[in-house]
Amino acid sequence: MFSSVCAAIASKLVASGQSVSVAESSTGGLIAANLLSVAGASSYFRGGSVIYTRESRHAFLDLDVIKLKGLKPLTEPMVAEFAHAARLKLDATWGIAELGAAGPTGTPYGHAPGTSVIGISGPVNASITVETFSEKREENMVQFTEAALALFKTILIECLESKSKA
Asked: What is the CATH number of the domain that holds 161?
């Protein structure tokens, strides 16, 4: 789907000896699938999980329940905790997490369909909120995936470039 972005990510991860793990919700595995679409992914991809339900979050991530209690659902601080947990769970350099409402309806917490938060945890942390203002589930899933991969590529390149200058 996003082969040039993923090829650039893979190249940077392999060259730097770094790794990534993923925990995704409304993208349903599309982030992981795209990262795995590059030949040689086993050298940098530690694993991923679809954490679509509360049960799967408990099974696949060791989330700090105390920290989560004080966070509002579907926010950048919350997704940052998920990205951190994804990174730690598989001892990866980087963790990517995505939480969202792909549609056609919103969340029980009042978020509109087409809302996603994406977090990156690693040597540099980042998060963004994506709002498509659309109820089209499949299109939202693709747009959330594209945003996650673009954010990770940007953060990864910035991190590696700042390291090389130091």
From this structure: 3.90.950.20
